[in-house]
Amino acid sequence: MAPEEAKVWGIRVPVSLSGRRKWPDELRAMAVQKILAGAGIRETAEEIGANKSLVALWVKNAKCSPDGPAFVEVVTPRTLPTPQPSMPVGASRENDASCKISVGSAMIEIPQGYPADHLVEILRAVRAAQ
Predict the structure, then answer these.
(1) N or C: which end of the chain has fewer CB within 10 A?
(2) Which residues contact 62 (CB under 8 A, 6 or more apart)?
(3) Tens digit of pLDDT for each residue in 27-45?
(4) How far is Cα 13 from Cα 33, in angstroms, rounded to an integer?
């Protein structure tokens, strides 16, 4: 006996001999779009004949895959960088605090009190350039 097929929203959905459906990516995307547009997960699941937890998982997975990476990997260098010559004691300022960030060959030094929104834009630009 050959596996059956069902049609949902005009899309063929293969059904195995055990009765399990193999939901095509196109149909999954349509269901997610409908839910993101305001339809309920339960109602959409009932409409297509799927389990509501499965449809909720489709929505969750769709939200977790933005256009860019969700994180930035930080890799420590395998060799230590050559030490930079230190400033003469008279030229250093003891009360100045700063943060140094090394990304690839770029070294960014952020002074204390630097606006956070500007820093975010700088880090995004460095990440996009790599």
Answers:
(1) N
(2) 29, 32, 36
(3) 898 999 999 888 899 999 9
(4) 18
